[in-house]
Amino acid sequence: MFVAFILFSQVIIISFGLFLERSYNDKTIEEKLLLVQNQCSILGNQILVNQFIVQNSQSNLNAQIDQLANVWEGRILVIDSKYQIIKDTYTIDQGNYMIYDEVFRVMRGEKDQSFRMVDNYAEIIVPIVNADKVIYGAMIATVSLQDIYDTNDYIATQVRVLHVLFSIISILAAWVLSNISVNGIHRLSRRLSELNEGHLDTIDGIVHFNELTQLTESFNALIVKMRLLEESRQEFVSNVSHELKTPITSMKVLADSLLMQEDVPNEMYREFMSDMVEEIDRETKIINDLLMLVKTDKKTAELTVEQVNINALLELLLKRMKPLAAKRNIELVFESFREVVAEVDEVKLSLALSNLIENAVKYNNEGGNVHVSLNADHKFFYVKVQDDGVGIPEDCQSQIFERFYRVDKARSRETGGTGLGLAITRNAILLHKGAIKLYSEPGEGTTFTVRIPLKYVS
After folding, report:
1. Considering all CA atoms of the chain, what is the largest pairwise distance in Å, rounded to the nearest integer?
2. Secondary structure (DSSP) of 104-127
3. pLDDT, tens digit, 9 for 90 and up, residues 313-338
4. Does this model's pTM top 0.70?
5. CA atoms within 13 A on the CB side of 180
């Protein structure tokens, strides 16, 4: 960061200096040549009035030309229509004829004027014309640009001084900024090491840069999530241990009761055996849920994709759920807007949708309603499962799909829940490249919306 900041500042300083020198040089030369052109045009008008008679006792035209040449530190040539030099401030070529292609072009009207740079001088050729734009001659002015170059050298010296000054400032600024940044990164690095050792504490106080602030917030959010996962894991271990131990304890109590009694009546024997079967079924359900959660893990699971009629699948799932709904006097309603056939894994999708429907029945009010609807567009099909039951508190909705999480632990045990159903459902839907959303109001019910592509893309 230190080196990058210095390099960036140096590029800016050097570019600005070169731009300043170049722009000043071009601008001053342009303005000086424009001034020379205008003054030559004025002299040309006077020469035309005097009919190219420069050495006239009644006019100071000759002196004006000499004076202007001295001011420009250069040379002025006046040429008539016959290409004869009638005035040379150096008097070297006066009276001779001018044979120069650029003069010919200007005199013939092919060019309005001509510029040429020679060493530290600029040469400009300006035609002598009347009001009707008829060309009667030309003037060649050679102008020294040394004053402009001297000024440019002075500006270049000042720019170099500023360059050194700004370089020192940029180095100091880079050192300060890089140290501030590195300090924040070092703090993050230390916290990562502490996190690796098991200390789940959040970070406060890194506000030097917006990027570091955002990184710190993301890091803290990750720590909070890790805390929740750790709490969920511990709660899951406790719950599963309890759930797995309870049926075994019940079966042992029942078996011991039978063994302690002699000549047990058949009715009692059958009753105890029936209770033991229920406990075995309960144990089996917990184990199956755990195994299914592993099978639907998106990192390891494989799908058996085939064309499935989703309408028929939902009707079958609702038919299976009717006995459970009848026990609580809950009405199941299915609404289909169109026939839907999609590429899915029928077993895993059945499990996901069955969990949603079963939850809608279990956590509904007595005599309530469960509404299941199916719709589709050109890319996805949508399944909505809506109940008018107890609902889910807002502070629990963000965690409802986390494995092992249960909103009402007491009611979950009563209904036989293990806290794995929605985690299994989400995993199965994600395997299909789909999405699931939740909307719920406590006391008003819950709505789950599932979106899955019609064509599976691996």
Report:
1. 161
2. HHHHTTS-S-EEEEETTEEEEEEE
3. 999 999 998 988 998 899 999 999 99
4. no
5. 14
